[in-house]
């Protein structure tokens, strides 16, 4: 019996994850999609930077999640770079601090403290 | 030289072995595995294996994106930051609705992750937390406490429904790394 696998692109998946992570973690104030020169490659993971006030500043350690097929749905590989607000300020001052040559891309911001709304917008536009 | 993928898989396999060893200890305590009369495994050993398993799960996720494994061996303090991220991803990937109702659980996981991190004797929260799974310590009243005789009340959450879900998600997270797509 063949199984249909629901494939989503990284941009849509980024929106889904951002919306979910805002709901799950009230300490997250901003989520940014990270861009790299490999983004055109099909197996390049989706990369998200998450600014979390509940995170301890312990350096920039990307956490990678493998692709998973679960209940007929394909979940692409994801990298989460969680940073404390003070670490994010340093990154804003010096974007070269981002590992692997990554760059800040579009951002999702929490707009209301207790309501998990989100508004995607292009960084700096 | 071994690749990041190889290191990640190795950490995940060892996390699985630690987790399985903990399951075996539970089976011994409930009589499913025959042991000499009067022998029971104390909580500290169950918790030590849980702490070791969680630490290696977190390091497996860190190694996957190229964090140098040598840099990871010097510290046990990765669980509190990384484990909540792992759980958040599990919920975000597998639940489309009712996420807000899971948020309370995820918050408790963050607290539990810190408590698990503190079970390692090297993590002492600046001298405020001496309780650990391996070595005796002196409490505030000047009494020496033996880990094998300590009840670890901070970890009681593992005995209720949320704790069972926590353990299932740890196991699932390990398995996703052990049986993964070659394209990671």
Describe the structure.
The complex is a heterodimer of chains A (125) and B (184). Chain A has 125 residues and is α+β, with helices and mostly antiparallel strands. Chain A has 2 helices and 8 strands, in the order αββββββαββ. Chain A starts with 9 loop residues before the first helix and ends with a strand. Chain B has a two-stranded antiparallel sheet with strand order 1-2. In chain B, α1 runs antiparallel to α2, α2 crosses α4 and α4 runs antiparallel to α5. The longest helix of chain B is centred in the N-terminal third of the chain and has 26 residues. Chains A and B meet through α1, β3 and β6 of A and α2, α4 and α5 of B.
- Uncertain stretches of chain A: none
Oligomer: heterodimer
Run of helices and strands of chain B = HHHHHEEH
Order of helices and strands of chain A: HEEEEEEHEE
Helix/strand/pairing category of chain A: alpha+beta
Q: Radius of gyration of chain B, Cα only, in angstroms?
A: 17 Å
Protein topology:
The complex is a heterodimer of chains A (125) and B (184).
Chain A: H1 10-24, E1 28-35, E2 46-52, E3 63-65, E4 68-70, E5 73-75, E6 78-83, H2 85-93, E7 103-110, E8 118-121
Parallel strand pairs in A: 2-6
Antiparallel strand pairs in A: 1-2, 1-7, 3-6, 4-5, 7-8
Chain B: H1 4-29, H2 43-64, H3 69-72, H4 79-94, H5 99-117, E1 137-138, E2 144-145, H6 161-178
Antiparallel strand pairs in B: 1-2
What's a concise summary of this model?
The complex is a heterodimer of chains A (125) and B (184). Chain A has helices spanning 10-24, 85-93; strands at residues 28-35, 46-52, 63-65, 68-70, 73-75, 78-83, 103-110, 118-121.
Essential attributes:
A: 125 residues, alpha+beta, two-stranded antiparallel sheet, 19% helix, B: 184 residues, 6 helices, 2 strands
